[in-house]
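QA checklist item 7 of 12: single-chain prediction sanity check.
[x] sequence parsed
[x] length recorded as 262
[x] structure emitted
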Amino acid sequence: MIRSIIGIFLIAVNASIAGSFTVFRNVSFLVAGASHSALAGAALVILLETYNIVYINPLFGGILFAVLLALSAGYASQDEGINTAIGISFAMSMSLAILFISMIREYAARVWGLLIGDLLLLTNDDLILMFISTIIVVSIVLLFYRSFLFISFDIEGAMAFGINASLLNYLLLAIIAISVVVLLKGVGAILVFAMLVAPAAAANEVAKKVRDVFIISFFIALFSGFFGLFISFFFEVSPGAIASLTATSIYFFAIITKKYIH
């Protein structure tokens, strides 16, 4: 239970930071692509483990593949639209995931566990990796906060001001991919999109300042995670599923409220 609570806090931090920049940069599709790419990376590590080649946490492979997808999508988007580039990279990573899973056979259940995720099954090793990844994300954002905001809202204007927008864009996409993997073990590849994007999208509908988006999305993600954990006490249901349903419901409530109040 303590590991679950710590995991929820780490997820909320990433949902606040990476989720908000995902909404600002309008690259929500990257979250889905990175989560399934991470699945392929984790499957590769498990495959190598079965042949006694490596013995590391599969999430390391997930981070590597997710970041590679983000960087390749950022590079390909120079010629194509970024969502098109992400979609093609997404298809490639899913093909690799299925290929690796088919080679794992009896160990495939470990990969499917990442597809679904479970806050109550987080290990100490998972939390350590999630914590280190979160520290990296927070540190990079603190260093480049204003520049990230600039390229998120006006990348052409950032280039005109002499900012290395291309490099910063790669870096921003990379930290979003890292945050995706932080959520992977807790809520699963299927539900990462809901927990990372929905809180920030809901906050973006009601916040009056950019700073407020980060704050509100943090508390939405935190509330959703704890509500999912609370419900799982009384019913045999996935806390991640309830958390994701709560986050997405809050988003639609924010949309409806904004429409009829304003």
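[x] summary fact logged: DSSP finds ten helices and no strands in the chain.
[ ] second reviewer sign-off
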